[in-house]
Queue: 3 jobs
Job 1
Amino acid sequence: MKKILFTIFFYLISIKLIFCQDKNFYTSFNIQYKKYNEVCFPTTHNSFNYLIGPKQYIYPNQRYDIPKQLADGIRGFMIDIHDHDKIVPIKGNKVLVFHEQAVLGHEPLENILDYFNDFLADNTEEIVTIIFDCDVSDSKKVASIFEKHAIYKFLYHHNDSIGWPTLDQMIRSNQRCVVFSHCSGYSDWYLHQNNYCFENDYNNHNITDYKGKVIRGDTTKNIFIMNHFLYNPLQRKKVNKYTNQYDGLMNHITICKNTTGKYPNFLTVDWYDKGDLFRVVNEINRE
C-alpha cells in the first residue's frame, strides 16, 4: 500500500514539474545552472498586441497583456517599435509600440518597459528577454529611453570574450533583462540580433509551410529564435490554437532541429494560452 501511495505521489509531483507555468520557471530541472544560450524560453510574437488589457488592439496576436503573460510564465517577448507612421504622426523623440500601423493600437515604449521593470523588481530570480522588431531611424533614440528608465539597472551587458553566462550568474549579478534588436547595436546591452541569433521563416500560412528555413542570421550563431505561428488575421486564434498543440509544436521543432542542428532558445507563438507551449518548453529544458 505504501508503495502504491508513493508511486501516486511521485506521479503527481512529476506532472506539476512537467507542466510548470509558475514564476519559478528557472528552478525547474535546475536549468538555472545552464548557460543562457542553452535554455529554451517560452516566447510570444507581437507580445504587446493583445485582446484583454488596458489598451484596445485590433487583430490581436495574444489574448492577454504583458503583465499577465509574465505572470503565466512567458519569458521572451517580441515587440515592434517605430518612430514614424503613415497615419498617426509621431513627434519628437517618441518611440511607439505597434504592429504595422498605429491606428490598430499603440503605446509608448516607456509604458511597455514599466511592465518589465515592475516584474523584475518583484521577482528577483527571473530573467526576461526583449526582442525588438525595429523600425526606428536611430538606435540612440531607443537607447536613450532605456538609459532614462528604471529598467536600466536590470540590463544584461554582454562580453563577447567571455560568452554567455549561466542563468544563475545573471541572477546573482542582477543583469536579468536581455535586449536584442534588428536595428544596429548601440552598446554591450543593446545587442544586434544577427550578431548572436538566427531565426527561421515567420511567413507561414499553414502547417505545410513549416520548413525550418533560416531567414535572419545564420546557424553559426548559438541562439535560435524559432517562429511557430500562422498568419491569418481573421482566424488567428483558431489557426494558432490548432498549431500550438503538442504534436504540431514537436513536429516543427524536429524539422528545425534537423535543419539547423539546434533546439530553439525562443519558442515563439501566437495565442500562447492555447495549446501546449509550456509543456514542450519544459521537455526541451530537460534535455
Note: The chain has one domain: 36-285.
Job 2
Amino acid sequence: MDCQKVTVVPTETVEGYAVALSSENGIRELMRIKERDFDSGKVFTLVPESKEAIKKYVVVSERAQKLIDKYIPGEITLILPKNPDFHHFYYDHYDTIGIRIPDHPLFEELLPKTGALLLTSANPRGGTPKSITGHRPSTIVDLTGETPKIVRQGELVVEL
C-alpha cells in the first residue's frame, strides 16, 4: 500500500484517510480533500510508527503514559503537548497533537513499512464518517490541561 498518497484505510472505528508523515505532497492533498488549512482549528491525528515512538512526537506525562499503556492501540485519541524537539512542516503550526494507533491488523502490517501516518475520517467536511464496524469514531481525550477532558465520546469509555 502506497501511503505517499492519500489512501482510504479501515480502522476498528470508522474508515479513514491516511498519508505518510514523510509525504509533504500527500499531506497537502489531504488538506485539500478535507478543506483544511493551518488555521482551521482541526488538526490531523498522528499515528506513530509504534507505541514506543509516541514520545518522539508528544510530551507524555505520567497520566498520559497510564492511558497509553491501558488503551493504545485502540479506539482512543489522546491530545498531548507537541514535543518541542519534533519539527515538521505540518505540525509546526500547532502546540498540541492528537495521537492514536488503531487496533486493526492493517496498521500492525503497515506502520513498520510506512512509518508514522496522518489519519482522519474519510468523509467530506461536515459529513458523517463511514463505519464498517458500526462503531462511532474514537474517543478523544485532551490531556493538555490540569484536568483530563473528554472532547468526543466514542464507543470506548475511558477511566480517567
Note: The chain has four helices and eight strands.
Job 3
Amino acid sequence: MGMSKSTQNILHKTVVVIPAYNEEKNIIRVLKDIEKIGLDCIVVDDASTDNTYKVIEEFKKNSKLKIFLIKNKKNLGKAKSLERGVKLALSLGYEYIVFMDGDYQHKPKDIPKLLDKIKDADAVFGVRNYKLLPIKRRIMNYIASFLTSLAISLYSKKFYYFCDIQCGFRVIKSKYLKDIYFGEGYAVEHLIAFQLAKKGVKIKEVNVNIEYHDNAISYITKKKVIDVIKQIILFLLKK
C-alpha cells in the first residue's frame, strides 16, 4: 500500500466501522480490500433482508481479518448503526476509528491516505471527486457544504470550511467520540462535524476516490434530505 512506517505503526490502534444494509453483493469486496491493509473491522448489519450477515460470517471463517459483527434486531438507520459500532470500538480500546460505507463506493485503498493525515490532525474527512458526481448531486453538495460550513463556524465560533461535508468516509481519534450525539438517519455526518468543531479539534480533508457502480444502491431521497435539515435545526435549537 506504500504506507510510511509511522502510518503502519498506528494500524493496530485503528478499526474500521462499517454500517451495512442489504450489501451482500458489495461487502466482501470491501472486507477483502481492508484485509490487504491489515486493519480490524466492525460491521453493523442493520437488519438486512438479504444475506449480508451470512456472507460476512462465511468470509470470517477463512479470513485473517479480525471482524466484529453486530446485527441489529430491527432496522435502526445509519446513525444508530454507527453509534453501536463506535461504542464497541471504544470498549475495545481503539484510538482511531475509520468510518466508511459498505457498498464499495468508498475504496479501502484510500484509508492509508486518511491515516497519514491523522498524524497531524484530530480528524480527517474524505472529499469525493466532484467530477464523478451526477450534476444535480454536485450542485446540492456545494450548497450543503457551504451552508453547513457557515453554520458550523457560527456554532463553534471558529472558522471551518468543508469541501464535502456529506462524505461519510473519514477517520477520527476515538477520544473525541466518547460523548458524541449521533442523531437519526443521514444527518450523522453533519452532526458529528458540528460537535467536533465545537470541541475545537483540528480537522483536515483529503481527496478520496468514489465509484457509482450498478450494485451500489442510494437510499437518499428528497424526504431524507429534508429530514437532515430538520435534524440539524433541532440540534442547534437544543444547544
Note: The longest strand covers residues 14-20.
